[in-house]
Write a structure and sequence with these properties.
CATH topology of one domain: TIM Barrel
CATH class of one domain: Alpha Beta
Number of strands: 34
EC number: 2.4.1.82
Keywords: Carbohydrate metabolism
Largest sheet: 8 strands, parallel
Protein name: galactinol--sucrose galactosyltransferase
Organism: Sorghum bicolor (Sorghum)
Family: Belongs to the glycosyl hydrolases 36 family.
CATH architecture of one domain: Alpha-Beta Barrel
Strand content: 25-35%
Length: 610
């Protein structure tokens, strides 16, 4: 059966179509009904690109310390692949197989606890009953528990997530592994569709098709997840990043088919997450198969693209364009996660600007000591929180049917909203794309040209709703990189010119009359990528009968704060104390300094008398 929905607004049409399918299938919930985990509003660090599978307890400690010392403390941590107990199958008959290069992906889980790299010893004071004569004794404690305790106690981490595959590990759970026999794991061999194999051969799938995957029987998978997750929760872990989810749909033979098996696994996963991680602590990854999306009742965060590849120059423009377009669909089911990136990298600003307006979690995978703190402080406030946009970031209407990675003429524009303002990020993504011959992303134009496009206030599709009834369409636009502030009449456009891997972030702030002859618009923290994310409330008091008015704002963060006012304000007060400000007669920019607050997530009361 094919369902077709029609409408005049493309974003509303997609939303309503998914909601109709939700009501019909009754197997999943729309994103708006799901609890978003709390970690998304805090800066994070993931161990993957820092260590890959060589991650250790000491490496985790070094990474957290390194970022905090630079003034951008991570408040959530993902311990990625490399912490689990795994074993490899050395099959003589596979030694000459063409997939031997990927044999590491057939490693299987041999226990639900952490491996030796995470086992730590701590000193325990000798009790009066001890008779060995020593002052201290070494006590073995669960290593992961100590890692989590230290991360939270010594480094201020609020949320710790750990990685595991949907099947336990890449190669599943080892059949009849000691202590894991009750999961009834048995070897299964993935069967891929001709379409997938013709488009993108995959070394993981090729390996497992020969060496097999230890598939936990669907009647035992809830027990498996619950025992794994309850152990993690006992160590203080707050959630899981569940990877390689798409493998399940290739293993349906003998289990009722791909839909039945996928649904059984997801029902079990979500039941275990609900039982063990009360903040709905789950990130879904490698999971774009529709069987998964149509089975997700509570999972609220989904990886939106392939990985960030720090060593692949062809990947960076493609990554940004992919996450934006994938979010059009994925964002109806969950909040898309646009993945980690490196802050010290030639494309770091490009990636950072995209994450800032994507509405996604913001986290990096820097090696300890390899950071660009100047860049990170455009994303992260001193308390470790971030200014996250409100919606999933999506391409603007005029980009929906363009190809900004390959057509040689189009810039990619991504829109989002904050509580009082809109934002449009513009990116030159030309020069690379998927090659149908080599079956990989490659550079197809080594020197793509400089492109010119334009933005307008209604590129932010929801801007009229933010502005309120009676809005004339007029806005001020603050360009983050250039620092320019322009008052833009309704329907007018503002040009933008970018080279490849360049970006600009435009903050679109609706102008409203606040007193006779006086117009005003809040902007936000001028030195942050998502400036408008700092403004949480804006209301006007007075202003009638020719009298002056007070614009009352609730703002978060610290640094240079800006707003537009058509005439110089009489005074500005921050938490009732009068503060100095500057005013630019040419642009109408009101600027003042907000100090670092003493409390986390503190909201300042800013009053501007006009």
């Amino acid at each position: 059966m094919v369902y077709v929905h029609a409408g005049t607004n493309p974003f509303d049409t997609i939303t309503q179509a998914v909601k109709v399918v939700e009501r019909h299938l009754q197997t999943f919930h729309h994103r708006e009904k799901k609890k978003l985990p709390s970690f998304v509003d805090w800066f994070g660090w993931c161990t993957w690109d820092a260590f890959y599978t060589d991650v250790t307890a000491e490496g985790v400690k070094q990474g957290l310390k390194s970022l905090a010392e630079g003034g951008t403390p991570p408040r959530f941590l993902i311990i990625d692949d490399g912490w689990q107990q795994i074993g490899s199958e050395n099959k003589e008959e596979s030694n000459n197989a063409v997939v031997q290069e990927g044999a590491q992906f057939a490693s299987r889980l041999t226990g639900i606890k952490e491996n030796a790299k995470f086992q730590k010893k701590k000193n325990k004071k000798k009790s009066d009953d001890d008779k060995d004569g020593g002052d201290d004794q070494q006590a073995q404690a669960p290593g992961l528990k100590l890692v989590v305790e230290e991360a939270k106690r010594d480094h201020g981490v609020k949320y710790v997530y750990v990685w595991h595959a949907m099947a336990g590990y890449w190669g599943g759970v080892k059949p009849a592994a000691e202590g894991m026999e009750h999961y009834e794991s048995a070897l299964a061999y993935p069967v891929q569709s001709p379409g997938v194999m013709g488009n993108q051969p995959d070394i993981v799938m090729d390996s497992l098709s020969v060496l097999g995957l230890g598939l936990v029987h669907p009647r035992r998978v809830l027990s498996f997840y619950d025992e794994l997750h309850s152990y993690l929760a006992s160590c203080g872990v707050d959630g899981v990043k569940v990877d390689v989810q798409n493998i399940i749909e290739t293993l349906g033979a003998g289990h009722g088919g791909r839909v039945a098996l996928t649904r059984a696994y997801h029902r079990a996963l979500e039941a275990s997450v609900a039982r063990n991680f009360p903040d709905n602590g789950c990130i879904s990854c490698m999971c774009h198969n529709t069987d998964m999306l149509y089975s997700a009742r509570q999972t609220a965060v989904v990886r939106a693209s392939d990985d960030f590849y720090p060593r692949d120059p062809a990947s960076h423009t493609v990554h940004v364009s992919s996450v934006a377009y994938n979010t059009l669909f994925l964002g109806e089911f969950m909040q898309p996660d646009w993945d980690m990136f490196h802050s010290l990298h030639p494309a770091a600003e490009y990636h950072g600007a995209a994450r800032a307006i994507g509405g996604c979690p913001i986290y990096v995978s820097d090696k300890p000591g390899n950071h660009n703190f100047e860049l990170l402080k455009k994303l992260v406030l001193p308390d470790g929180s971030v200014l996250r946009a409100q919606l999933p970031g999506r391409p603007t209407r005029d980009c929906l049917f363009a190809d900004p990675a390959r057509d040689g003429t189009s810039l990619l524009k991504i829109w989002n909203v904050n509580k009082c303002t809109g934002v449009v990020g513009v990116f030159n993504c030309q020069g690379a794309g998927w090659c149908r011959v080599t079956k990989k992303t490659r550079v197809h134009d080594a020197a793509p040209g400089t492109l010119t496009g334009s933005i307008r206030a209604d590129d932010v599709d929801a801007i009229a709703g933010l502005a309120g009834a009676g809005w004339s369409g007029e806005a001020v636009v603050y360009a983050y990189r250039s620092g320019e502030l322009v008052r833009l009449p309704g329907g007018a456009t503002l040009p933008v010119t970018l080279k490849v891997l360049e970006y600009e972030v435009f903050h679109v702030c609706p102008v409203s009359g606040v007193a006779p002859g006086v117009s005003f618009a809040p902007i936000g923290l001028l030195d942050m990528f998502n400036s408008g994310g700092a403004v949480e409330q804006c209301e006007v008091r007075g202003g009638g009968g020719g009298a002056g008015a007070v614009v009352a704002l609730r703002v978060r963060g610290c640094g240079r704060f800006g707003a537009y006012c058509s005439r110089r304000p009489a005074r500005c007060r921050l938490d009732a104390a009068e503060v100095d400000f500057s005013y630019d007669d040419d642009t109408g920019l009101v600027a003042l300094h907000i100090p670092v607050p003493e409390q986390e997530f503190y909201r300042w009361d800013l009053e501007i008398d006009v």
